[in-house]
Amino acid sequence: MAMTDMTSCPVHQSFDPLAEPYLADPYPDLTAVREEVPAFYAPSIDMWVITRYDDIESAFKDPGTFSAAVGQRPVFPLSDEARAIIAGGFHASPVMSDCDPPKHTRIRRHNLKGFSARRVSVLEPKVWAKATELVDDIRPGRVDLVPALTYPLPAYMIFTFIGFPDEDMDMLKSWCGNRIAFSWGRPSPEEQREIATNMVHYWRYCEEFVAKRAADPVDDFTSDLIRIHREDPEAISLEEITNVAYGLSFAGHETTTNFTGNAIRQLLSHREQWDALCADRTLVPAAVEETLRYDSSIIAWRRITTRPVTVGGVEIPADAKILLLLGAANRDPKYFSAPEDYDIMRGDVRAHLAFGKGIHYCIGAALARMEARIALDLLAQRAPGMRLVEDQELTFPANVSFRGPRHLLVDWP
Ligand code: HEM
C-alpha cells in the first residue's frame, strides 16, 4: 500500500475501510499495514490506525489515554436533517461502550450482576428451543441462512434477555434496519433520515418499556436493574437503564448475526473441518473460538486520545480518533502460528482480542459464544451434508467495524 512520510506520522493515502475491495476481504490490507507500520494516519476516515497486537492490547488497557467516548459517534458528519430528527426525540447518553470511568465503572458493575452466570445459563434452553424452531422451518433446497437463522436467533434472544415482549419483536426488528451504517459507515442523506427516524421510535419504545418495568418488575434483565435502582437510586438511574436497554439491543444483535454467518461460511469453506466437527460435535466450541480469531464480526474498534502518545515510535496527538485493527491483531504472527490458516484444532486461539480487553471487555461474550455454539451444533446435527453455494457473491455492510455476510446461501439437504 502507498505510504508517505515514514517519519513521525506515516500517512496511508490508500487505506480506505469503506472501499469495495476492503469490504469484500479486508485481510490482505490488514496484514499489509500490520507488517509495514505499527500506526499511521488514514485521511479517508480522518483517523489514526493502530495495527499490531501488542499496541492494540496496550490501548485497551490504558483507558486514561485511549478514551472510549467516541465509540458510538458517527464516523462521518450527519446531514442537518438527520441531526434535527435525533435532537427531536433520541436522548441516548453514554453508559457503557462509549463511556469512561468513573461513570462506566458504576454502570458496568450493575450490568455485570444482570449478566450473571445464572441469567445467561437460564437462557440456554431458550436458545436451543428458538434455534430448533427456526431450523425446523428450513426446507430442502437453496436457503439463505441469514433470514432463516443467524438474524432472528440473536434478535429474539437479546430482546428476550432484556425483557421485550414477543409480540413486539417484528416491530423492533423493523426499526433495526441499517443502523450500523449510522455510526460506523457513510450513509446517504436519505438513509440517514430513515435510520434516525427508526432510532427515535426505538428510543421512545425503550423509555416506555423501562417505565413499565419500573412500575411492575418481572423476571428479566431490565427488572434486575430496576431492583438495583429501587434499592439505591444513585446506583443506576431509570434514564441510564433506558440507555442500557437501547444499547444492548444493538450490541447483542447484529454482532452475533454477523459472527454466526462468518462461522458457518468459514466451516463450510473448509470442508474437512466441517466434516470433522459433524463427526465430533465437541469440536464446536473450538470452531467458535477460531472464528472469533480468524473472521470475527468486529474487525476494528474505536477510541480517542486524551493526550499525545507514542505508539511503536509513531507520535499520535491528543484528540486523535483512533481505529484499533482487531482483525490485524488476531492474525499477528507474534501470537498465532500460521495466522492466515483457519484451523479449529489450533492451540493458541485463546489469545485473540475479538471481545476487546480490560475495562470494556465485551459483557455479552458468554451469550454470543453460547448462541453461536448452539446454532453450529444444531446445523451439524440436522444438515451435515449442507453445502455453501459456490458461485454466490457475498456482500458485507459498508462500515469501518462490523463484518458479516448480508446473505449466506447454502444448499440444504
Ligand atoms: C460475536 C459477537 C460479539 C463480538 C465480536 C463482540 C465484540 C465486542 C467488542 C470488541 C467490544 C469492545 C471492547 C472494548 O471497547 O474494549 C464489545 C463491547 C461490548 N459488547 Fe460485545 N461483542 C459481541 C456480542 C455481544 C453481545 C451478544 C452483547 C450483549 C448481550 C454484547 C454487549 C457488549 C457491550 C454492552 C459492550 C460494552 C462493554 C463496556 O463498554 O463495558 N456484545 N463487544
TrEMBL record:
Q: Which InterPro entries match?
A: Cyt_P450, Cyt_P450_B, Cyt_P450_CS, Cyt_P450_sf
Read off the CDD domains from this record: CYP130-like (cd11078)
- An example Pfam family from this entry, by short name, is p450
Keyword annotations for this protein? Answer: Heme, Iron, Metal-binding, Monooxygenase, Oxidoreductase
Classify the source by domain of life.
Bacteria
Family recorded in the similarity comment: Belongs to the cytochrome P450 family.
| Official protein name in the record | Cytochrome P450
> Species name for this entry?
Streptantibioticus parmotrematis
Q: What broad taxonomic lineage does this protein's source fall under?
A: Bacteria, Bacillati, Actinomycetota, Actinomycetes, Kitasatosporales
